[in-house]
Amino acid sequence: MKLGEINTLEILRETDHGVYLIDDNDEEVLLPNRYVPTQFKIWDKIDVFVYLDNKERLVASTDMPYIKKGEFGLLRCNQVTDFGAFLDWGLVKELFCPFKEQAFKMKPGGWYLVYCYLDEKTDRLVASSKTNRFLDNKVLTVEQFEEVDLIVSHPSDIGWNVIVNKKHLGLIYKDSIYRDISVGDKLKGIVKKIRKGNKLDISLEKIGFRNIEPNAQRIIQELEDNGGFLNLTDKSDPEDIKETLQMSKKSFKKAIGNLYKQRQISIKLEGIYLIKT
Q1: Angle at Cα 222 formed by Cα 216 and Cα 225, nearest 5°?
Q2: Contact 135, 168 (CB under 8 A)
Q3: How many domains, the chain?
Q4: Quick check: is 138 in a domain?
Q5: Splitting the chain (277 residues) into consecutive groups of 10 residues, what average pLDDT does each group show?
Q6: What is the CATH number of the domain that holds 45?
Q7: Parent domain of 77
């Protein structure tokens, strides 16, 4: 039985309180009457979310929470007690967020980006708004210019921190944000650059970005890093191109040809220029 996840279980028997479900390991869990289908047969399979009820008993629900174990989500705080905050995650029993797991003090009615995890000490599902501690950039699973899924995390002085593919921490700089974004927004983006220490610079996807091959995007990146100009042309020495861009002259000529057709660069005798949009 996977606590905090969706389980496909079989209906074992019916009782006054609901039906008992069983998994492949012969572990049983109650599906209360309020969730029992109007029509069913013993040994029918059913998808349920399994968690602990208010009395810390294993229980199943056909209602699905806004976030499951191992996921990030924006949740509303319903109430704050002496023990911590209780968040609405779409189930009868609210999701608990201890004070020690709050990045800053939660207030009733506020919305907070949290991570849901299983507390090994209490064996309970809890939330934490200290989301950075559940992210790791030591070993990256993304590459430069790759399209990624983003969740907007929190603002900084230089931009917005984002969660990348639910695994890594990234940053979108202020000057590359062309629309309103808010905490919890789910967006698509591009890994613009991987800096020292595996820090990820993220760019929000622009129109036509997918049509730019990786070599062309690498040239755009170098142009942006060098004030919009590169002293390279299709007449340049192959070694100069390789040293600057780590690509062959053939690849370089093809890439600048594509960029020129898309009107992203201009080609002069002295080099190539980035066309500002």
Answers
A1: 145
A2: yes
A3: 4
A4: no
A5: 94 94 95 93 95 89 95 97 96 94 96 95 92 95 90 93 97 83 92 92 66 78 91 91 87 89 90 86
A6: 2.40.50.140
A7: 72-132
